[in-house]
Write a structure and sequence with these properties.
The protein has about 300 residues and is mainly beta. The chain folds into 3 domains: about 100 residues, OB fold (Dihydrolipoamide Acetyltransferase, E2P); about 70 residues, Nucleic acid-binding proteins (OB fold (Dihydrolipoamide Acetyltransferase, E2P)), CATH 2.40.50; about 70 residues, OB fold (Dihydrolipoamide Acetyltransferase, E2P). Strand 12 and strand 13 form a beta hairpin. The two termini are about 30 Å apart.
Length: about 300
C-alpha cells in the first residue's frame, strides 16, 4: 500500500484487509515494505503495542512504536494513546514456535517511509489531507501520514479570530491544509485559512438588509466582532450583555469592500452550541499565492508560498 495517509484512513480498504490473518500475505508485505493499518488493542507494561491481526499474534515493540521513542524525543504517551485506535506499520519479521506465528511490526518504519515520500514529492504550497489529533491554545496538531504530526498554528487556521483551535476543529476531524513550511529536519508547518475563501468570496453571500446568525469571537472597546463565516467577520456596536462564544442574530447595515468591513447590529444574543461549517473555496492541489483582500482595499492580507 503506497498511500501515506493519516492513521484511520485506510483501515477499511479491501487491499488492507487482505493482510489480516494471512501469513503468506504478511510475508509478501515484508518484501514490499507495505504499509498496513490495524487497531491497537493493548499497550503492555513495557509499552509494547499489540495489534489486531485476527487470530495472529502481532506486536509493535516499544522502540518501534514511533519515531523518537528510542532516544526519548517522543514520550511514551504517544504509544499509550494509540490503544483502541488505528495504527500504521510495516511488517519486519514473522517468527514461528510450534507452528504458531508471531508477527513483529514497526510503526516507526512506516513513519520514516512516509516522511521520505513526503519530502520527495511535497513542497510549500501543496494542499494535503490531514487529521486533527490534538488541540492546544497555540494551534492544532495534525496527522499528515502514518501518525507523523505537523503543527497548524492558531493564526493560520482562519482569518476570523478564534480564542482556541477547538472553536474551529474537533479531534479526529479530517481537513485539507496547505504546507506552509518544511524545515531542514523535516518538521512541517501547515496553514488552513487560504482554503476558506477571500473576503469577496465570503461576502458575496451577505447583503445589507439581511438578518443572519453568527458567533461572537471578540469583544473590544470599540465594538464586537461577529463571525459570519470562518474567513469573514463583521463589527457590531458595543453592548454589555454579550460575551465571547455566544451566538447572535445580527442585522447587516452595510457591506464595504474598499474597507473590508461589514457593519452589524445585534438583534439578539443567546447561548447555543455552535458547529462551524467549513467550506473550501480552493479545490486544486497546490496554491502559490493567495490574496484575501479586495483589490480596491488599501489594507492587503496575502500569503506567498513560493518564497516560503
Amino acid at each position: 500500500m503506497k498511500e501515506f495517509l493519516p492513521e484511520g484512513s485506510i483501515i477499511s480498504s479491501e487491499e488492507n484487509k487482505k493482510y489480516y490473518s494471512n501469513v503468506s500475505a504478511l510475508k509478501e508485505a515484508i518484501l514490499r515494505k507495505t504499509v498496513i493499518e490495524a487497531n491497537a488493542l493493548i499497550c503492555d507494561a513495557d509499552h509494547n503495542l499489540f495489534v489486531d491481526l485476527g487470530n495472529i499474534k502481532a506486536i509493535i515493540p516499544r522502540d518501534e512504536g514511533a519515531i523518537g521513542i528510542s532516544n526519548g524525543k517522543t514520550r511514551d504517551i504517544a504509544l499509550i494513546s494509540r490503544v483502541g485506535k488505528p495504527v500504521c506499520f510495516t511488517v519486519t519479521d514473522i517468527l514461528e514456535e510450534n507452528g504458531i506465528p508471531t508477527v513483529y511490526l514497526s510503526r516507526k518504519n512506516a513513519q520514516e517511509l512516509c516522511l521520505e515520500h513526503f519530502s520527495r514529492i511535497h513542497k510549500t504550497g501543496d494542499i494535503i489531507d490531514a487529521k486533527i489529533t490534538h488541540l492546544e491554545s497555540f494551534g492544532a496538531f495534525c496527522d499528515i501520514g502514518c501518525g507523523n504530526v505537523a503543527l497548524l498554528p492558531i493564526d493560520s487556521i482562519s482569518v476570523s479570530r478564534i480564542s482556541h483551535p477547538r472553536d474551529r476543529f474537533k479531534i479526529g476531524e479530517n481537513i485539507k491544509a496547505v504546507i506552509k513550511s518544511i524545515a531542514p529536519d523535516g518538521k512541517v508547518t501547515l496553514s488552513h485559512k487560504e482554503l476558506l475563501g477571500t473576503w469577496e468570496e465570503n461576502a458575496q453571500f451577505f447583503a445589507p438588509g439581511q438578518t443572519v446568525t453568527g458567533v461572537v469571537r471578540s469583544i473590544e472597546s470599540y465594538g464586537i466582532f461577529i463571525e459570519l463565516a470562518p474567513n469573514l467577520a463583521g463589527l457590531a456596536e458595543p453592548r454589555e450583555d454579550v460575551w465571547v462564544g455566544q451566538q447572535a442574530s445580527v442585522f447587516i447595515k452595510s457591506v464595504i469592500p474598499e474597507k473590508m468591513k461589514i457593519k452589524l447590529i445585534i438583534i439578539d444574543n443567546f447561548d447555543a452550541k455552535y458547529s462551524p461549517k467549513i467550506k473550501y473555496f480552493y479545490e486544486g492541489d497546490k496554491i502559490s499565492e493567495w490574496n484575501y483582500s479586495p483589490g480596491i482595499c488599501s489594507k492587503q492580507i496575502s500569503s506567498n508560498f513560493e518564497s516560503a
